[in-house]
Specification:
Layout (H helix, E strand, L loop, with lengths): L6 E9 L3 H9 L4 H4 L3 E9 L5 E11 L2 E14 L4 E8 L6 E9 L2 E10 L8 H31 L19
Length: 176
């Protein structure tokens, strides 16, 4: 991840699930709208061999009873060896933002870190201020924290690896 950007948000959580489970949920972005109520849609425009590609995403940032719609386009890359999922925003207000999901095993659980870094929109005089005072803390963190919490809920309700009992099965394509 690039360092020294004007805006950085960090959302992290210890999840009672395996790294493999969390990594799989994070990389299967096209299933997020079925799992996360704040996601309106996720569509791949192009796919690459690593499971990434060009992905269009739209989510709502709730403010009480009002949902503020957001939209962005990203280049997504999946690194199975780390494991990590990275995004480079290439369209929308957040163009040039870098995002990384990383997963570290910790005492039978997974430490998930979701980092967003960005220098802000190319708006004269106010771009950095908008990024650091509003877009990052209100919109990016508001959506990212809900996404991480929602995927953690799904992962923590999934059966442990090796538990093949039918009553232990959890669908990853339906909301918990």
């Amino acid at each position: 991840m690039p360092v020294g950007r004007a805006m950085e948000t960090l959302d992290e959580r210890i999840v009672r699930a395996s790294v493999a489970t969390m990594f799989e949920l994070a990389r299967r972005v096209e299933e997020w709208p079925a799992l996360l109520p704040h996601y309106r849609y996720v569509r791949f425009r192009e796919r690459t061999g690593d499971g990434g590609g060009i992905v269009e995403m739209a989510a709502n940032r709730p403010f009480g009873v009002v949902n503020w719609p957001t939209w962005w386009l990203s280049e997504m890359a999946v690194d199975e060896s780390r494991p990590a999922v990275r995004f480079k925003h290439i369209g929308g207000v957040t163009t040039a933002m870098d995002v990384e999901w990383s997963f570290t095993p910790t005492e039978g659980k997974t430490h998930v870190k979701l980092v967003h870094v960005w220098d802000g929109p190319r708006w004269p005089l106010i771009g950095v201020i908008a990024a650091t005072a509003v877009i990052g803390p209100v919109f990016v963190h508001g959506i990212a924290s809900r996404t991480l919490a929602g995927l953690a809920r799904v992962a923590e309700s999934a059966p442990e690896a090796g538990d093949q009992r039918p009553e232990a099965a959890v669908s990853l394509t339906s909301r918990p």
